Amino acid sequence: MEIGIQKRMLPHVPWALLFACLTVASIGIWNLASASRPPHSPVWTSQLVYLGVGLAAMTAVALVDYRFIQRAAVPIYLINIALLLALKVMGHRAKGAESWLVIGPFRMQPAEFMKLGMILMLAKFFHDDYRPNVTGYGFLRLIPPTLLAIVPIVIVLIEPELGTSLMMLFTAATMLVFARVRWWVVAVIGVGALVAALVIWNDWVREQSEPRATVVRHFMKKHQEDRISAWLDPTADLRGKNYHSIQSKIAVGSGGLSGKGWMKGTQTGLFFLPEQHTDFIFSVWAEEHGFTACLLLLVLYGAVFLTSLGVAFNARDRFGAFVAAGVAAMIFWQVFENIGMVTGLLPVTGITLPLMSYGGSSMVSVFLGIGLLVNISMRRHIF
Amino acid sequence: MTLRPTSPGRDLKVRYLYLGGAMLAGLVVLAVNLYRLQIIQGDEYLAKSQENFIKPIRVRADRGMIKDRRGEILADSRPSFDAFVTPAFCQRCVAEVLPRLATYLQWDEVQQARIEAQVKGTRGPARFQPISVRVDLTRDELDVLNAHPDELPGVDLVPVPHRNYRSGAQLAHVLGYMNEVTQDELDSLNSKGGGYALGDYAGRRGIERYFESRLRGQDGLRKEVVNARGESMRDDQGLIGGSDEVPPKPGKNVVLSIDSRLQAEAERVFPGVAGTVVALDVRTGFILAMMSRPSFDPNVLTGRVSAAQMTAMAKDPLQPMMFRSVAMHYSPGSTFKPITMLAALKSGQFNAHSFVNCTGGYRLGSRVWRCWADRGHGIRDSRQALQSSCDTFFYHVGDVLGLDPIAEMGKALGLGSPTGIGVVGEVPGIMPDVAYHDRATPGGYQKGMALNSAIGQGDDNVTPLQLTLAYAAIANGGTLYQPQLVRRIESVDGKVLEEFQPKVTRQIPIAAEHRALVVDALTAVVNEAGGTATRVRLKDILLAGKTGTAQVQRIGAVREKKEDMDYFERDHAWFAAFAPADDPEIAVVVLNEHAGHGGVESAPTAAAVVQKYFDLKKADASASVVPAVRPPPPVEGPPEKPTEKLPAPGDDAKRKLAAGQPPPDPGEVR
Asked: What is the ipTM of this complex?
């Protein structure tokens, strides 16, 4: 095991990535200061601490040679699954879901870290499973990695954390596709998506007499099916399950080109946005700073994605490449889903906006991922 | 860069392009959507966000006052507080807030369940509509609720002026009352531009209902910044911008023709448990007093009336909500006889010298119609017959004339059709004629019906107001007025906006000498020996009137004593009067339900009201700072009032009064 940093690694630290991430995180804290203005408690100060913890975690992960991490991928994966299962026993309920694990003074969301554990596991699998002479993954060869992904996804789903499990599903799918699957596998996935659409149409959209013949809806928890209903018909219930979606669209839309000004958002200031400092933080930014600032933020996220893929491109081995691509995908899907839901494009799922939303687990897990990227980038020439 | 077998192959390199391209495409989708929301629909959402936090608050217009003819306030508004719950802002409403309210306001279970259902039942934008949960909070309730604002999110205490009827039950039927508009009414009210909301009050019955649109005024609007919990915030940032207020337009005042002092006197002197007193100015048709007993307290009905109170009121056999002056009709009994007399004189078959020998009854065919005087009146001429209310004479008139000439005179004097008072609901009464009986009575018209109608029995039915107007028409020489309760509408600062002029329904051609004979006889009823109401002779006012004792039950061979009869079978006691007989100003009708003899049970009330009228007139004239009672404006209808040309009636009685003769024995009154 190799810990530490050598002088020759320094030129390969992905400074652009770090710069983009720190800029977004700084913007996030400034934005949080507005979102948590009095009479809210000023959580931006805590966020500052989480950022420090995140940077420390990033540094720590960057210093450990990632080949060690590669060897530890299986234990990390298993420990994360164990933590998730522990939630079932000693979890702390919040908003209808058991997602917090409280250990002494620390509260953490194991699902946030499970994402990374799954990425590492899949990367290790694809690294080990490399067959240069085979053109792509067929169905049988996809079974093991699919299982590796499905197990944590299902555990997170029954937690229930629909949003996070969806994010993990998309991230894993991205990694699978990245590993090059045969065209007909893509076709099967396409058919699957079509079936899913039909199921949603049958369970939610189609007019049915009671008892309703539903396929999956009756398996879902109330808050989950409500969110899908609300996404499908946002005007049904102004102040009910749909309230988030409408109010956040109003917040974003009313920002206009240049916004209402920092600390001057009325949706924010007058409490029309629940969870405005966590899942709906983007609407605060959009309301107060307008379209131009939103574009700036999208550009910064674009920079994060592209520099992450750059790390993957230059990675020394398949493990590094897959980890980097996985982390990039994880951040991308969260950004896409979160901004999509805030702007009414996608259903509301409990997903944080990386680097912007208030929350320690989210912040630390993103910086752990960035740490992996730095690690991979730094060590691209040493072996 | 060298590639080892385990190092990422070139196979991966092209996929970074795809992956990066897909991610950028995702960001472009987000950017396009943001463009749509913020740039294309930005203004729309900006407006929505303002709707969110700018709460338009209605500023209620002050309701106009109702005053009596001298400007004394009968109904006004006093400050009070109502409690409202806004479901959208009421967190844990059913679970916590409503139970707390139930404790503080001492709701019973039914009430709590009803409000719970109301709160649960609202959906969508209706959740932002405040629901009234208690009107007119008491001082204690207000203190308790004010002490716990944090426990009661979404509960607002709104200052709402509450209607105050100063004279309580006294004028209830005329003034009416107010209560909350129902959901069903809202649409129809607002289609006429009423601007009503749930929880608003609207006038019910009487003046309050009839003049609702003018009393109500127009609500104003104020804007306020609220947060998502509905709490008002200070507008530090100038969020509202521009003008934020539309001032309310106060309602107009309605000035009645009622004199509250005369009304109070009628209330004070009326002895019965049920009945009515109507007094009006015979020269204009303006009503001076209109009392109906039993009554109700409009303050109770306007506030929180309990279900038990409502039931008690609905079950009361005396029907306190019934406005007896206009909404019920009664047999006029002998008070109808002047009308029969006018018809008789008009026919030419009777004159002042016509007479009948009353032997206690009148035979028609095989049946004898009994006179109230069992032993008979002896010889009675027209004047004497009216003075002593001799039934036999009028049976004879009925026999000679038949029904139709009598009915014609009755109808000319307004009986059998609505008076057109408008403000309050009335029944038309019945003035039966031959066609009526052929249509409505099994077996059709029979001669005996004319005999019954001639003495105000049979199917004759009049409202007390109709009878007052008919007597007023006889008194003023033949002008039938449309009765009115309202003299004028004033602005809030007292400017006259609309002045109501006397309205003439019709002129009735009554020959001067016929009228003189009737007025003379009616004067004799009160002022000459042998009259049925001599006990109520007034010292210096020449009162003319007619008693009536209307049978409710068909009377058998033996007349029962009042005390032996069931209350609802006893006779109605009437007295219809006007004064002064030689220059009439006021007509008064008193009906004392199931009280017995009109001369005993009703005449004193009428006399007292007349006395009070002239006392007040004298007092007002001597006070005469400003003539509180405006002189009646020139009447367009009957400008050539024939009063001067008439032979002065009652001269005889006046002379006797002057000579200091003792009043004759009342004798048996009828």
From this structure: 0.89
